[in-house]
Amino acid sequence: MTALDTLRGKYIEAIAAAADEAALEDVRLAALGKKGEISLKMRELGQMSPEERQTVGAALNRLRDELDASLRARKAGLADAALDARLKTEWLDVTLPGRPRRMGTIHPVSQVMAELTAIFADMGFAVAEGPQVESDWFNFDALNIPPEHPARQEHDTFFMARAPGDARPPHVLRTHTSPVQIRAMQAQGAPIRVIAPGRVYRMDMDQTHTPMFHQVEGLAIDRDISMANLKWVLEEFCRAFFEVPSVELRFRASHFPFTEPSAEVDIRCSWEGGQLKIGEGDGWLEILGSGMVHPKVLAAAGVNPDEWQGFAFGMGIDRIAMLKYGIPDLRAFFESDLRWLRHYGFAALDMPDLAGGLSR
Description:
alpha+beta; single chain; two-stranded antiparallel sheet; elongated
């Protein structure tokens, strides 16, 4: 038996005895690594005569190829054995019913927008939309907001930059969705019933305020509309949205430039054990602002205030989402935390339905 035969037998036996991939790698390095025995013998070929080099070199190449093939085969065998062992512990009974998987997650703001759209659609309100970058006229002047009003100052509103000499009227990131009501009246005239949900922007940031948030505003214009109609619409909305049998609202006199008379609206509630309960208790919680549309606003939108009148209201979508679903911090709505979204989010195909229950 030659030295190469002895070397072959040694490593074939070692390959067969390797119990795992780590041991097999040690064998490979000992035989075929840069400092392995086969590699060292290949370096000795330079010291041999041409005749010897040809014979021994061919034998070394055959041995190297054989060992490499054996190593690959053994590695594949170890992998198959490991897979078999894992499959014995990780089995699946295909006769069991499938496990439902959530297909995406709906953000609470999107869910609440869908809920309130369903509620107001049931009362005959269409959805109106408008641009988020508005002219100074639509955002302020048409809504009877005077030039000296605090909302028209740069510390409250995001004004768009203008080039020197630009004669166009100033533009802002809309501070409310009321400009959509002006555009809707200009386009459709009266009578009209619309809600305007969407993003709005104000310079504010704390636990209950963010520079960008969401509002929904409602508008109803007809010949004989009164505050009584407004009260009924808001009561029906709150009852359906909070999914309670009854609610009690309290109207407090207030002032908004675009409505007259104006009222802040509170809802009866309790905070027993730190949990908000709507429609019961001795507490009151402010949820929205409302009033009868100011005649100047109607005139600016091209509606004759001598023939038509109506009401308007507005509320924060993020705020009512926090109240309904127990979300403590407004800033979490905009932090893109998937863990938060999985906890507070909604199933993608679970559409709100008044008959079946909004949040079910």
